[in-house]
Design brief:
about 475 residues; alpha/beta; Rossmann fold; 6-stranded mixed beta sheet; two-stranded antiparallel ribbon; about 50% helix
């Protein structure tokens, strides 16, 4: 709710000043560049409405209104500069290049004036807004709701260091301990219980940041805690050990900040996430239309291969643990799992002859473009699994839960590198590739994975 309020305020500010900038540019363009009288006609008023909408849409794609309370000055200036430059070029080629001009110098003057006026009218109000926002965050009780995990000397040290900083943006609600003994923060912060009840505490107090003050040498405990709280929304910070410092993995969050490693919740920038979703919808729409002949042919092939339905619908775990029904062409005989969930294997007698070819070429996955259009899946992402197998995997490797923080995909790095898994052990092996993908997500990597998937389909080399 806090983010929505501040984002709405900035959106209104951006719209109003974008309209003011366009109005001033329109006046300057008419009187100084074209040497004509300024007339506030219908085109002028239409521009005052539509041009600001263009800018606000541009800012939204850029991610300006995402996680607004962490949008500090340097980042805001950088975003304003990039948006003003790219937006000016877009508007020039869309609206201004057809103008009748006496000299090409007038084109350069138009670009210069539009960029200069818009950037100034954007960045100054934003900096004022940002100053008010930061002052509000630094007020007692208005900062990021923060929980400390650990009650040892390190926990006390980091708490005291942060509280002594004028730039502190944390609003500490209390601490939990991990061994039942360390309670050195008693009397300073409320004790909120043991780490065994961590999820309940996080939900109850709507925690926004967590500082983990436990020994980094205790890797298993640290990994378990991070896997339980890393939901993509909570900022996680840990104390670095000397190896992390020397390896360069310590992120300097601000000059006066404490020495902490921040675990980035999502490495893919917001604008890339927006473009990724746009690509998902566009490519899936094209695929559904262009593949209609293939769907008809495949449907006939499946129907003639064995008695039963053409499509196979199965419950899978999607983003944030939400259950959805995945759509596939049926590749097995009916009642293939009468004895309970079973993974397919090489030479599995339950697979039909047509189904074996479709699995080799991944053609059985093509109906999932519909899942993509419904927002349940993406073109590229970790393959969705059934809850039955996730429960088994999590007992061995809790980090698997990270894979459910993003939309599952029709194809994935693990699918390209490893193919279908025949047992839980192979699922764990494939999971490593998907975890690497998750920590390195980018549009370029998605395109690369899609390229190799197409090669697998053409060569029928799928496992």
């Amino acid at each position: 709710m806090k983010d929505r309020f501040w984002a709405s305020c900035l959106l209104v500010i951006d719209f109003c000043f974008a309209a003011s900038a366009w109005g001033l540019f329109f006046y300057v363009r008419k009187t100084q560049i074209e040497n004509q009288a300024f007339i506030a006609d219908s085109k002028f008023y239409l521009g005052l409405l539509l041009i600001p909408l263009f800018w606000v849409f541009f800012y939204f794609i850029q991610g300006t209104y995402h996680d607004i309370r962490r949008m500090f000055r340097l980042k805001l200036i950088n975003l304003s500069l990039i948006a003003s430059l790219l937006g000016t070029i877009t508007l020039f080629f869309a609206l201004l290049i057809d103008d009748d001009v006496k000299s090409y110098q007038n084109y350069y003057r138009s670009i210069f004036f539009l960029f200069g006026i818009h950037f100034i009218f954007t960045v100054i109000p934003r900096l004022v807004f940002n100053t008010v926002l930061i002052q509000n965050i630094r007020k007692n009780g208005h900062g990021f709701t923060t929980l400390i995990i650990g009650g040892n000397e390190k926990a006390v040290e980091i708490y005291m260091e942060l509280m002594q900083q004028k730039q502190n943006t944390n609003s500490f609600i209390g601490y939990v301990n991990v061994n039942g003994k360390d309670k050195l923060l008693d009397g300073t912060l409320p004790y909120l219980g043991h780490a065994t009840d961590l999820e309940e505490t996080l939900n109850k107090y709507e925690v926004e940041e967590v500082i983990i003050a436990v020994e980094n040498s205790d890797h298993n405990r640290l990994k378990d805690i991070i896997s339980r709280i890393d939901n993509g929304n909570i900022r996680i910070k840990i104390l670095p050990d000397m190896y992390a410092i020397l390896s360069g993995s310590v992120e300097m969050m601000n000059i006066y900040g404490a020495l902490l490693i921040e675990i980035i919740p999502d490495v893919m920038p917001f604008w890339q996430q927006t473009v990724k979703r746009f690509m998902d919808v566009l490519i899936s729409l094209i695929a559904v239309v262009c593949l209609i002949p293939f769907y008809v042919f495949s449907a006939l092939a499946v129907k003639l291969s064995s008695p039963g339905p053409i499509f196979y619908l199965q419950d899978r775990v999607g983003m944030n643990g939400k259950i959805f029904r995945i759509i596939k062409f049926r590749t097995m005989y009916v009642n293939a799992e009468l004895q309970g969930p079973q993974l397919s294997s090489e030479g599995d007698p339950r697979i039909t002859r047509v189904g074996r070819f479709m699995r080799k070429t991944r053609l059985d996955e093509f109906p999932q473009f519909i899942n993509v259009l419904l927002g349940q899946m993406s073109l590229v992402g970790p393959r969705p699994e059934r809850q039955f197998y996730i429960d088994q995997i999590v007992k061995v490797e809790p980090q698997y839960n990270h894979l459910t923080k993003v939309r599952p995909g029709i194809t994935s790095w693990g699918q390209v590198k490893y193919g279908y898994a025949e047992n839980v052990d192979q699922m764990l092996q494939r999971m490593k590739f998907d975890l690497i993908y998750l920590k390195n997500r980018s549009l370029a990597l998605d395109i690369k994975i899609m390229f190799y998937t197409v090669i697998i389909v053409i060569k029928a080399k799928g496992k």
